[in-house]
Amino acid sequence: MSDVPSAAPKPDRLLALDALRGFTIAAMIVVNTPGDWGAVYGPLLHASWHGFTPTDAIFPFFLFIVGVSIALAYSKRLAAGADRTALSRKILVRGAKIFAVGLFLNLWPDFAFGDIRVAGVLQRIAVVFVVVALLFLSLPRRRTLALLTAGVLIGYWALLAYVPVPRDAVIENALATGQIERAHGTIEDVDITAIGANAIAPNLEPATNLAAWVDRHALPGAFYEQTWDPEGLLSTVPSLATALLGVLTGMALVRFTNLGDRLTVLGVGGVVALVLGYGWGHWFPLNKNLWTSSFVLVNAGWAMLGLALATALIDGLGWKRWAWPGLVFGANAITAYTLAGMLGVVIWSPWFGGESLQGLTMTAAQSAGAPAKLASLICALLYAAVVFLPVWVLHRKRIFIRL
């Protein structure tokens, strides 16, 4: 994932944002590549359905950072007199490139086009970037964007809470058995209620909610889950609000250049978002798969507080040395993410007598006395370090790959 819409660090950049972006990418690599999926610390796994773990925050953090970056970068360009039409064209082209890289990673390494998954992390980033960036160019007033963000969050909640779900084969089977099938053949119980011959009551159960139904009937390609995709169509709508909250935060940072003012804005904004999000979560539970409105607010709150801390340490106290890995990862984020996706085939393939590199590393760590979960984490950290090396070389040579 790139540091949309910017690339190489510049003297006038908010270094804290670059570092936060890089550490977010590093965290994504770590949670995606454990030594053994059967031996992972709880905080490094996504919540199965309702709930919230640190891992659930990683993707929303990145989308929030995308929004902040949009506000910082395009505010400067507009102030310099850049042509909005030309900027719009560049935004569309960049979004198409990011989407294409996402499709490439989904096809890698077999390129089985018949089973292609159209949805994905980079694809969602591309859509969110394009839509939110164009909205920023078209609706530059903070009040308008704030109202739009609130409308998206409330509208999405209303859709899932009040719109009945049409019955289809998946729902018919769930009504008959009380169960649905998830990824890797996992069977899960669901509690749904028929309301007539053609629909079931609005619900937030896996596979039978409105967002899942929309995926089955409007999203082409294969799904990450059996019958819906966590990066599906309807759930992408509230992810726009995640980036829009980033845009509003970025606009505040442009307006308030004093460090103290910035920390106040981030701190107060973060606390308010957390209170609203956790409060709403009692009625509209935090859920990454559905990207619920409460989930949006909670992640925005933690992202603001994280950015406040990074700003205080890096841009305030000048503690740049500890942030160096994040700055390196953040400057070539799309390269790091792409390398991590492609090299995964190498570490998981059975090269050595039926054993993979990741498996050998896991065995070595356990032989050295590490418990299974710690050994699994060591494997993930080593893999992140391997991905870091070529990105660091690019950084040293001042090569910043941007789409």
Please characterize this protein's 3D structure.
InterPro entries: HGSNAT_cat (IPR012429). Keywords: Membrane, Transmembrane, Transmembrane helix. The protein has one domain. It contains 14 helices and six strands. It has helices at 15-32, 58-79, 84-107, 121-138, 142-162, 169-177, 210-218, 236-255, 259-280, 293-316, 324-331, 333-348, 357-367, 372-396, and strands spanning 165-166, 179-181, 187-189, 199-200, 350-352, 355-356. The strands form three sheets. It has a two-stranded antiparallel sheet. A two-stranded antiparallel sheet has the order 2-3. A two-stranded antiparallel ribbon has the order 5-6. The longest helix has 25 residues, at 372-396.
Sheet with the most strands: spatial strand order: 1-4
Shape: globular
Q: What share of residues is helical?
A: 55-70%
* Sequence stretches where pLDDT stays below 50 over 5 or more residues: 1-12
How far apart are the termini? 10 Å
Q: Order of helices and strands, N to C?
A: HHHHHEHEEEHHHHHHEEHH
Q: What is the averaged pLDDT score?
A: 93
- Report the strand count: 6
Determine the structural class based on helices, strands and strand pairing: mainly alpha
Figure out the total of helices. Answer: 14
Short description:
61% of the residues lie in helices and 4% in strands. It is mainly alpha-helical. A two-stranded antiparallel ribbon has the order 1-4.
How would the blueprint of this fold be written?
Layout: H1 15-32, H2 58-79, H3 84-107, H4 121-138, H5 142-162, E1 165-166, H6 169-177, E2 179-181, E3 187-189, E4 199-200, H7 210-218, H8 236-255, H9 259-280, H10 293-316, H11 324-331, H12 333-348, E5 350-352, E6 355-356, H13 357-367, H14 372-396
Antiparallel strand pairs: 1-4, 2-3, 5-6
